[in-house]
C-alpha cells in the first residue's frame, strides 16, 4: 500500500492515555462514593458538599475523557489501517477488542457483580460461578471496546467502498472559528440524539445519548492523522479555549441553582425538549474543548516528563479492563469504614490506581498477552 505513514506513537499522546485511564478509575470510584451516575456498587454521600464535589468531578470527566479516548483511537486507526491493510487491520481489531469484551463480559463482569450483589447466605465465589454457568454477560466499561470495534468496522467499510474520498484534514481546521463551528455541531447533535435516547438509558449495550461526541471525535481523529494535527496544537489555540472551559464549568450548576434544583425543582438535563437538556448538550463541548486542547499542548511541550510514564503507558488498556472488580472489591472490603465520602474516594481511588496498574504489569507478562493487551 502506498503512502504509508510513519507509525511510531509520540510519547506525549501515550502519557495522555495514562492520565485518561487514571481518570476512568477515579471516576468510577467517585460514583461509588456518592457522585451522580451508574456503577456496580454505590454508597450514599456523607454530605451535600461531598456529593456535589464528586458529581462536579464526574461531570467534567464525562464531558471530555471518553471522547478523548475515541479521538486518540481514531488518530491511530488511520495509521494502523495504512500500515497493515484491510484484512490485518480487521483481524487486529477483532483480537485486541473482541477478546477483552468476551473475557470481561463472561468472566470479570459477573465477578464484579458478585462482589457487589452476592445474596445473603451465599459466597462471592458460588454466586460468581452461578452467574457464569447461566451465561450472564455484563459488558461494564468494556462498552468502550465494543463501540470502538463498531467504529473500526464503519471506518474500514468507508475506506474500502470510498477509496477516492480524502481522509486528510488541512491544518487550517485548527482555527478558533472552525473549532467553534465543530463545538456547535457537537452540542446540537447531542441534543438531537437525546430526544431519542436520553443519557442514562441504553440501546444495544451502549448509552447512545453520549455518542455525538464519540462519533465526531473518532472520525475527526481518523482524518487528522495524516496532517499530524494533534501534534500541532499550540498555546495560541489552546489557552483561549481553556479559559472558555473554565468559565463554562460553573454555568450549568449556576443555572440549576437559579432554577430551584436545590429546592427540589425540576432540572432534567438528560434529554427532551427542555432548556436544561439543551443547556447540558451545549455545556459539554465547551467544557471539553479547552481541556482536550490544553492536554494536547501541555503534554507535548513538557520538557522533562516523568520517566515512569513510559512504563505505565503499555499497561493502560489492561488496567482499564481489570479496574471494575478492583474498585468494587476495595469498596466492599472497606464498607465498614464510616469516613467522609471525599476521604474514602481519595483512599480507595489511590489504592485502585496502584492495584489496577500493578496487576496489569503482571498480566502483560503472560505468554501471548501482548498480542491482545
Number of strands: 0
Strand content: under 5%
Give me the number of helical elements.
Answer: 11
Low-confidence stretches: 1-8
Tell me about the biggest sheet?
A: none
Helix content: 55-70%
Order of helices and strands: HHHHHHHHHHH
Structural class: mainly alpha
CA-to-CA gap between the ends?
Answer: 27 Å
Shape: globular
Gyration radius, rounded: 21 Å
3D structure, described in words:
With 373 residues, the protein is mostly helical. The chain has a domain at 173-301. The chain has eleven helices and no strands. The protein has helices at 11-32, 48-117, 124-133, 143-161, 176-196, 211-224, 235-258, 275-301, 308-312, 316-333, 341-363. Helix 2 crosses helix 6 (211-224) and helix 2 crosses helix 8. The model is unreliable at 1-8 (pLDDT under 50).
Secondary-structure blueprint of this entry?
Layout: H1 11-32, H2 48-117, H3 124-133, H4 143-161, H5 176-196, H6 211-224, H7 235-258, H8 275-301, H9 308-312, H10 316-333, H11 341-363
Helix pairs in contact: 1-2, 1-8, 1-10, 1-11, 2-3, 2-4, 2-6, 2-8, 2-10, 5-6, 5-8, 7-8, 10-11
Task: From the structure above, extract its key features.
about 375 residues, mainly alpha, about 0% strand, globular, disordered N terminus
Summed up, what is this model?
With 373 residues, this protein is mostly helical. The protein contains 11 helices and no strands.
